[in-house]
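Thread: Modeling a multi-component assembly for a lab meeting

Hi all, long-time lurker, first post. My supervisor asked me to bring a structural picture of a complex we are working on to next week's group meeting, and I have zero experience with this. I have the sequence lines for every component (875 residues in total). Could someone generate the structure of the whole assembly? Inputs are pasted exactly as I received them:
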Amino acid sequence: MDLFLIAIAGLIATGLAAAALAPWPRLGQRVGQGGTILACGLGLAPAVTTLAGGGRLELLAPWSMVGGSFHLLIDPLAALFLLPIFGVSALGALYGAGYLRHHEGHQSLGPVWLFLDLLIASMAMVVAAHDGLLFLLSWEVMAIAPFFLVAFDDDKAPVRDAAWTYLIATHMGTAFLFVMFFLLAEEGGSMDFDTIPAAIQAAPHLASICFVLAVVGLGSKAGFVPMHVWLPEAHPVAPSHVSALMSGVMIKTGIYGLVRLLTLTGEPAAWWSWLLIGLGAASGIFGVVFALAQGDLKRLLAYSSMENIGIILLGLGVGVGGVANHAPLLACLGFAGGLLHVVNHALFKSLLFLGAGAVQHAAHTLNLEELGGLLKRMPFSGAAFFVGVAAIVGLVPLNGFVSEFLILVSAFLPLATGHGSAGVAGVTVLVTLGLISGLAAACFARAFATVYLGTPRTAPAAAAHEVGWEMAGAMGVLACACVAIGLGAPWAVHLLVAPVAVATGLSMATVAATLDAAAGWLATAILAFAIALALAATLWLLRRTLQARAGVERQATWGCGYGAPTPRMQYTASSFAQPLTHLFHPLLHTHVEEEGVAAPLPAAARFASHAPDLFRDLLFNPLFRGVERLMLGLRWLQHGNIHLYILYIVVTLLVLLMSAVG
Amino acid sequence: MNHLLEILLALSLVFNFVLLGSTRIGACVIWMAMQGALYSLVPLIAGEEITPRILVLATAALAMKGGIFPWLLIRLRRRTSFHFEVEPYIGFIASLLVGVCLLAAAATLGQRIHLTAGGYNEGLLTTAFFTILTGLLLITTRRKAVMQVVGYLVLENGIYLFGVGTVVEAPMLVELGVLLDAFVAVFVMSIAVYNLSRKFEVTDVDKLAELKG
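Re: Modeling a multi-component assembly
Sure thing. I ran the full set together rather than chain by chain. Output:
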C-alpha cells in the first residue's frame, strides 16, 4: 500500500513540476514523461503482487472530511483494473512526449502533463477507494481532468463543443451516483463500502434501486447506449495518448464500479442479468454499426469502444445470471470473459488510438478518404496497428480472441446443459456476439485497408514518414502485450481466478477448477491455430518459390491491371462499407449528398455521406431543447438588478429561518 | 439579565429605525458607527467577569467599528460625490414600515430559537436578527454605493452581536478574524467605489447596472 500511495503522490508531484516547468517546454516534457513512467511503475508493483498472490492491501487512515473515511482497499479485483490504469498510462506518457514534441514552443504543454497525471492518479484512486465519499471525490477529479485535455486545441469551435458535451454527460452520470451513495449511506449510517451489505440487508428494496442508479451513473462513464453520446465527440479531439487513456482505460472505471457494487449488494435479481445483456447487445450492435459508417479514424475507434463495452456487458450479464441462478460455471466464465476483455480492450484500443495518433502525426489528417498506402511509408506503425486490428476483431492467437472465447463458451454451456431462461440468455448472447464480431471484422478491415493499404489518396499521405522511437516503442510494447496474452492464454486465464472469486463471491477452489477447464480448451484452440499457421506458412513458401520461377510483375495496389491506374480507382472507405451501411440504413439514417453521374459524357460528380448519432439527434437534442424552453420561461428572474438579487437572498433566508424554527 | 444590557439593546433598536429614516449619508455613517460601538461593549457587560481576552476583543471591536470604519467611509463620501442624499428606492416612511414588519419577524425568530449554549435572553437574539435584517434592507433599497457599504456594516454589526451574545466561548481568534475580514471588505469596497466615481462620475448602483455586458 505504501508503494501505491507513493505512486499517487509521485503522479501529482510530477504533474505540478511539469506545469511549473512550462516556460522550458523541453525540460518540462522530460520531467513529465520520466516522472509519470516512474510513478506508474511504482503503482504497478502492488497491483501485480496482489493479483498474483491473491491477498488484499488495506489502509484506513484518519481523514478530516465530514462523513467520509480515508479507506483504501486493493483486492485482486481492484488490482486487475489497476494493471491497465498504470500500465497503459506509463506507455501513454512515453508516447505523449513524442506526440507533443511539435507543439513545443507553440502551446503550453504544462497543463497537458498536469491534467494527465491528475487523470491517472484519480483513476487509480477511484479503483482503490473503499469509501463512498472518497470514491465520489476521485470520480469528480477523474471527470474534470479530461475536460482540460479534450479542450487541448481550444481555439477550434468543434473542440470546445466536444469538451462541453463531455463535461455535461459526465456530470449527469455523477448525479445518479450521488443519489445512490446517499441512499446507501442513509440506510447504512456511513459512506464506507463495508456498510453497504448491511444496509442492503436492512432494506432489500434498495438493491434494485441502487443497481439501476449505478447502471445509469456508471454507464454514462462507460458509454452504455444511450448515454454514449460523449464518446464519439470527446475521444477524437483529444491528443491521441489522452484518447487512448480515456477510451482504453477511463471508461473501464464505470465497469469497475458496477462489478464492485455487485460484490456488495448480495445476491442479484435475475432481471439484472437481462438488463445487462440487453444493454450490452444494444451498445455492441449500435456501436459497431456506427463505427462502420464513420469517416474519421478516431471517431470510428470511439464507436468501437462502445461496441467493446457491449461485449464486456454481455459477459457480465451472463456472469450475473449465473450468480443469480446458482450456476457457478456460468458465473465464473461470464465474469472471467468480461473482466479479461476489460484488460484486453485497454491494451488493443490504446494501441489503435496510439496508431491513429501516429497516422495523424505523419499525414496530418484522420479522414479515411484522404489516407491510403501508409504501410509502405510507416512499416512499424502499420504492423503494430495491424496487431491491434487483428486483436480487436478477435482473431486467434491474439488477446481479443481469448476473452470473447470465454464469453462464447459461457453462452454455449446453458444450451448444452438445458437451463430454461439461461438458455434464452445464451442464445441472445451468442447471436449478438456473432453479429458484432462479423461487423467488427468488416469495420476494421475497412479501417486498416483504407489507411494502410492501396496507394496514397492525397499528397500529405504520400509524404508520410515513420514516427519517432518514443511513439513506436509505446505501440510496440502494447502490440507485444496483445500477442503475449493471446499466446499465453492459459496462464492469463489462471491469473483471473482471484478477481473472479471476488466478483462472484465463490471460493477460489471452485473458480480455479472452472477456469482451468476453460484454459484447457483455450490451449487446444491455440494449438489448432498453430498447426493451421504452420500449414499456411508452408503453403505461402511453396507459392513464393513457384512464383519466383515464373517471374512476377509489380503493379499499383488495386490498380486492376490497368495501364495507368490512379488512386481514385481504389475502393473508398464509404464505398467499402456501403453494402453494410445500406443494410443498416434504418438504424443509421445516413445523410447522403449526391450529384450523380447522369449523361454519357458526365459533368463533375460529387458524393458525400455523413452518419449523425441517432441518440444525439432523436433523444438528447429534443430533451435539452425542452429543458432550455422551460428555463427561458424563468428568464425574467435574471434581470441584472443587484438590489433585487440581494432581495431574493433576504427573502429566501427569512423563509428558511421561519420554516426551520416555525 | 442586567439592566444595562437591556438599555443598550433598546437603544440599538432605536438606532436601526434612525438608520432606516435618515436622509443623509453622513448621518447614516455616524449612526452605524454608534451602533457598532454599543455592540462592541456587549461582551464587557454581558459576561460574568471581564477577562483580558474579552477586554482585548472589545477594544479591537470598538476601534474598528467606532473608529476606523466610519473614518474610512466619511473620507470616501467626501472624495466621491457632491451629493449627500441617501436616495432610496422606497420612501423613508415605507422603509420604516417595512422595518416594523422586520422587527416583528425578528421577534418571532428570537422567541422560537432555543440555543443550547449561552444563557442569554430573547431580546438579544431579536436585536441581532433585526440588525441583520435592517442591514439587508439598507443594501437592497438604497441607491448610493456608499450606502451599500453602510448596509453591509450594519449587517456585520448584527452578526457580531449574535456571535458575542450567544456563543460565550467563541475563540477570540475567530472574532478577531471576523473583524479583520470586515475591515478588508470595507477597505476594498472604499477603493472600488472611489475608483468607480472617478471613472464614471456616478456611484448610483442602478446606473452601474447598465455596465453589464
